[in-house]
Amino acid sequence: MGEFTHFNQHGDAIMVDISKKAETAREAIAEGRISMNQECFDQLKAGSPPPPGTSQCYSWKIL
Length: 63
What we know:
Pfam family, one: MoaC
Distance between the termini: 25 Å
Number of strands: 2
Oligomer: single chain
Order of helices and strands: EHE
Mean pLDDT: 81
Number of helices: 1
InterPro entries: MoaC_sf (IPR036522), Mopterin_CF_biosynth-C_dom (IPR002820)
Protein name: Cyclic pyranopterin monophosphate synthase MoaC
Strand content: 15-25%
Strand order of the largest sheet: 1-2
Structural class: alpha+beta
Helix content: 10-25%
Shape: elongated
Pathway: Cofactor biosynthesis; molybdopterin biosynthesis
Keywords: Molybdenum cofactor biosynthesis
């Protein structure tokens, strides 16, 4: 595989022209993890969203 074409000489992401690229079928699989405190979990389980301004109730990350 050659050099990456999606980055310039400074390492910044750049757009590339893919208009002439053949169509292909692709599949991607993602995995993540969400953690939250018990109070937020209980509210969601009961069908109620956490109150506004409680974004500290949970955290997430892509694995």
